[in-house]
Structure prediction request, 638 residues.
Amino acid sequence: MSPETILAPTATTNWIDHLPEAALLVDAGQDLIVAANSAMGRMIGTDRKSLAGTPCTHLFTDQRPQLIAFTEETLFRSHGWSRDFIFKHRAGHTVELEISSSRVGEEESQKVLLLLRDRRQLRTLRERHDANHYHRGGLLEWRRVEELFKDMERENQLILHAVGEGIYGVDAEGRTTFANPAAERMLGWRIDELMGRVIHRVVHHSHEDGSLYPLKECPIYAAFRDASVKRVGEDWFWRKDGTGFPVEYTSTPILDNGHPVGAVVVFRDISPRLQAQKELQKALEEVESLKHRLEMENAYLQEELSAEYHFHEIFGQSEAIKAIVRRIGMVAPTDANVLVTGESGTGKELIARAIHQSSTRRDRPLIRVNCAAIPKDLFESEFFGHIKGAFTGAVSDRVGRFELADGGTLFLDEVGEIPLELQGKLLRVLQDQQFERVGENRTRAVDVRVIAATNRDLKAEIQEKTFREDLYFRLNVFPIESVPLSRRLEDIPILAQEFLIRACQKFNRPLLALRERDVETLKAYHWPGNVRELENVIERQVITADGRLDLDLPGPDSGARPTAIQTPPIRHFDGELMTEMELRELEKQNLTRALEMSGGRVFGDDGAAALLGIKPTTLTSRLKKLKIEPRNFQPRQA
Prediction:
């Protein structure tokens, strides 16, 4: 009967119905039963007509993956055989099946003929089927190959039992011929359960993700098809209990008179190795993360070290200073948030550093954030960090200041400058000690103590609705006022002497004496710039001194700045536009004055570049552009 006749619906039904065994004609591509004979209807306990047009997988509800693999094998090899399937009779009892299969039609056809037998009733037919299944090589040839594998197993029995790797053999049809104890242990199958079964459908039918592993793609089969050794570094085997494990294996073809008759497969469980690799990768990622964090901390600390600090210790003997020291001593051992208030230049950052150094967090960094210098759109990134690609310009991951300060102290300088719309985000992190980097969903927990500082009246800003009251109370757990210099005049001699010593060392000048009349002059001034202004005055005096200090400060009723730091009168911008020529002339006057004060020196701590606060190379370029020669300015005479 031709394939075309078989595929005709009426002819198909008539043809199948004459078969003595239960039979199904299945469209494997659409998972549909095209036809079933009466024997099939009796086997399952239903009318054969009710089966036509229904999904074949409904008969094998718990074995859908195995059925797909079996039909795939049949289409690939044109025929197949299995005794792995079962289904339930409509009466409720289970029928253990032996199935023979054949592809019907041309190579492109998706139709498969299934012949089904009850194993318990038809054991004699199974024997006949085994003989027919290997008809191509002949019965005698198959027996000879079978004996060959038995001889191999006997000769290598000691080796097979001694090695730790799993070893099993397959014939040219992929059926198991032997397996060693290690293979049994790893796969969970006994050798008598594996013998004669197509092992691909038992342990290799699916990938790790559960997707079908087609027989034609299996490297184990390719070994005896190509008569070449196949080595696979990472694959997936399935155990009897349905669990899987990663393996590496080698499939070596077995040749008989130059013809491949099967293969020996040596495999090992690589779960420990992959787990070790994962742990190593995780450790490397943690090391890289720690390295990145340490680099960030180091860069931050280098930045801090390069900055100028007013002083490293709190100097003074006034009651105001003693009161500040006492309050530092009370709050430092705790983790309470501190709000330091006071005018600019009074040393608020110094108080924050003293609190940190006196606390249990002293071994972790004190991270300073100048809130006034952070652009609104970079606030979250600066505080909480971001991941690569979170926004335009985020070319790599960045650790935020909160994460850098984990375990230590975060000093929020000028906290009153934070925009109102961003204060809520800061408040949430202060409350929960948790945050997310910009562009990341992962929540990170930190342990940070916060010290904030401001020269603004936050209570007044709360009334004006420019500062959140809940944030104020979260920060102001323990307030400390940094007293202005005008209220601690008795500390001026100590501070002035300390600044004088440091300035002389800094500018490489002979040590100058601080006379009584110099102290009185300093005390008579009202110091609107506080300690910072005092330090600047002393440094200017050291730069311009001719062997001794020459202080000439205005009295307490004067609002002028100290004459010691005044510059020659030049035109300043007063709201009127200036021409390019006027701007160039103004710059030229300023550079000329700096060269006069430095005696024509550009480089060095007391050079013109240092006075102007720019790099010497920048100053040299500007002087060249304006055609100003530094050598024309004679050094000052001692």
